[in-house]
Amino acid sequence: MPVTAKICGLSTLDTLAAAIAGGASHVGFVFFPPSPRNLMPNEAAALATHVPSHVARVGVFVDPDDALLDIAMAAGRLDALQLHKTAPARVASIRQRCGRETWAAVPIKGRADLDVAHSYVGAADRILYDAKTPDDAAHPGGMGLRFDWRLLEGFRHSLPWALSGGLEPTNVAGAIALTGARLVDVSSGVESAPGIKDVDKIAAFLKAAAAA
Known about the structure:
The protein has about 210 residues and is an alpha/beta fold. Helix content is about 30%, strand content about 20%.
């Protein structure tokens, strides 16, 4: 299976175009106001019209309410929902209500954290393994943190999964080789500043992931 990649936190047409041209399988639109990558509905709508049908549009949320989900799905023409800090029962409810592919983010620091993934069986379609942020962090992702990828060695995954957290063009090939990930997700690792994507870094990341 080839390795595919999601470029998350896109907010401009030129960086969206770079992701699509580089072969991204997924593009991520963030709907979380504290994040520097947050999109207003009109901004998401303007970007969504430029995403071809073979690229999936993923909405990124932090324990969202139904009203936000409805607005974001309509504006961003979302194919999938990525949920952070959302309990399994709520993930299952959202998945049933919205009828979209649903990802549950599981923050990892130690080996025991991996077991949380099993609680999403029957609730989510995919697990996103991400680095655990400090308890007082303003947002749960996109901070460039990584966890020890060796923790995934030998782990029995209960669901399809993706790898996130601290990935960048220079380390993504090694991460893929170590973990066996078939889908990788990057945000801050292809930025020049928080929330500012870099077209050259996007291209480099996608090239490295495809060659891994």
